[in-house]
Amino acid sequence: MALLDVRKLSFSWPGRDVLHEIDFKVEQNQLVSVLGVNGAGKTTLLKCINRILSYTSGEVKLQSNDMAKLPLINVARHIAYVPQSVGTNFPMNVFDVVLLGRRPHLNWFVGEADRQKVSESLHYLNLKDFAFRRYDQLSGGERQRVVLAKALAQDPDLYLLDEPTSDLDLKNQIIIMEKLQALVKDSDRACSALVAIHDIDMAARFSDKILLLHEGVIHAFGTPLEVLTPENIAKVFGVEAEIVNNSSLMRIIIKGAMRPENEE
Questions:
Q1: CATH number, position 107
Q2: Pairwise CA distance, residues 84 & 75, whole Å
């Protein structure tokens, strides 16, 4: 049984179709990356799954539950969504920001188990020394890691992450992707992650599957080796690429932009 099952999902703004009959599944303990150019519908797809946006037609099921019929509090218990940028400038310390991730699970008070989950999340993302620093005094990259810790504290079945490494330096990009991969693979619970990302190399290195969006439809869906071919990269991104693959690492070498045949 798939953890996430998206069937013929379509979404439109007035006068503009964004997604058309999107069909895919995410199995348990998988990290799936969503790739595509700006405007391809990556963020829209995540927001439709999380019910931030109401899709025009189709169906989204999480562990066989129809997401359109679940109360929002139940959606929050099962799905953690991290947007590309967080507009809220929380005037509180980091521990309390991460504790907000426990809100869907709380009854009348914060228990010791909730505080323990926050501490574990901070420790997992190497943020324990930040626990009592003010969130609104952190750098952009530090805030991004704190918001990821908040998602971990939520303890969801599915992580929806929109460009989770966009504000991080290269070292922390790799560390965060390694942590996400380990979290999905080693979790005692059946959880998975759907990650919208721009970096093709990062997607190739850390993903079990890649969903390649192009002009509102799925151009390809499969393993990195199946999806990230020179032909697919040329069609979707408009660049010429060479694929280097060995037993331990797949690399995409971008040679240059594709030019129209009539351009000199």
A1: 3.40.50.300
A2: 20
